[in-house]
TrEMBL record:
Source organism of the structure: Catenulispora pinistramenti
Molecular functions per Gene Ontology: isomerase activity
The Xylose isomerase-like TIM barrel domain, residue ranges: 24-214
SUPFAM superfamilies linked: Xylose isomerase-like
Keywords: Isomerase
Protein name, UniProt field: Sugar phosphate isomerase/epimerase
UniProt keyword Ubl conjugation present: no
PANTHER family: HYDROXYPYRUVATE ISOMERASE, INOSOSE DEHYDRATASE
Claim: Isomerase is one of the keywords in the record: yes
InterPro entries associated with the record: IolE/XylAMocC-like, Xyl_isomerase-like_sf, Xyl_isomerase-like_TIM-brl
């Protein structure tokens, strides 16, 4: 059964100074799950508020995993949120994705974090931008080579917009990665760098094909890096569109 869509809270970062009002507005729109981007800031308070609003935490972006010398407190915060899925949303030098040696170095870093996550009963995921797909080595996108180099315990949240910006046939990539994909970022726009996102279903992304190619139980996380219109209106329209496709 396909999961109900989640929303990456980075989309509403400009409104998170009033966390309670913003999460309530998202719940009122119809979201039943959220993906935080700052799990170490008051995780217990966030969990209590989410529970009160009936919101599940689908996963958490945890850039602090690379910034902190000990990832254990970050993993603890993620677990406190009520999810088993910490996701590294970047922070590794783009240059490392351009060579085989660089990719081996990336794999070593991700494997080490995955091992630490497993010690606390968590899965560890990696989230892409365009630079993990733009390099093509021996006919394959760098991220797909990376998927072969990392431990099978490492899972992926494929940002379907950024993979397309990076030149990938995203539905084909999702089919090749298969069950390694436990979440995907669903967003739309002109599929070029530097332009704002638009409501899902109104841009150039092949959203029906993307969703059809993803595992049914992978989280569909709607996100806007930048919005071309009112963010809450765009999120409401995106949620309605995705729900309509999934129900068809």
């Amino acid at each position: 059964m396909t999961r109900k869509p989640s929303v990456q809270l980075y989309s509403v970062r400009d409104h998170m100074n009033d966390r309670e009002a913003t999460l309530k507005r998202l719940a009122d729109i119809g979201f039943t799950a959220v993906e935080p981007y700052d799990p170490t800031t008051d995780p217990a308070g966030f969990r209590a508020l989410a529970d009160d609003l009936g919101l599940t935490v689908s996963g958490a972006h945890a850039g602090a995993l690379l910034r902190e010398p000990d990832p254990a407190p970050v993993f603890e915060a993620v677990a406190t949120l009520g999810t088993d899925l910490p996701i590294l949303p970047g922070g590794i030098p783009e240059e490392d994705f351009k060579t085989h040696d660089g990719l081996k170095h990336v794999a070593d870093r991700l494997n080490a974090l995955a091992a630490k996550a497993a010690e606390t009963g968590l899965r560890f995921g990696y989230h892409n931008h365009y630079w993990e797909f733009e390099p093509v080595l021996d006919g394959r996108h760098a991220l797909e080579i990376l998927a072969d180099l990392v431990d099978p315990a490492v899972v992926f949240e494929i940002d379907t917009y950024w993979s397309s910006v990076g030149g990938a046939d995203t539905p084909a990539v999702l089919e090749r990665l298969g069950e390694r994909v436990v979440a995907l970022h669903v967003k739309d726009g002109p599929v070029v760098k530097g332009e704002p996102n638009v409501a899902v279903g109104t841009g150039a992304m092949p959203i029906p094909a993307v969703l059809a190619a993803a595992p049914a139980d992978a989280w569909r996380v709607i996100e806007f890096d930048e919005a071309a219109t009112d963010i809450f209106e765009a999120l409401a329209a995106s949620l309605a569109y995705v729900n309509g496709l999934e129900a068809a």
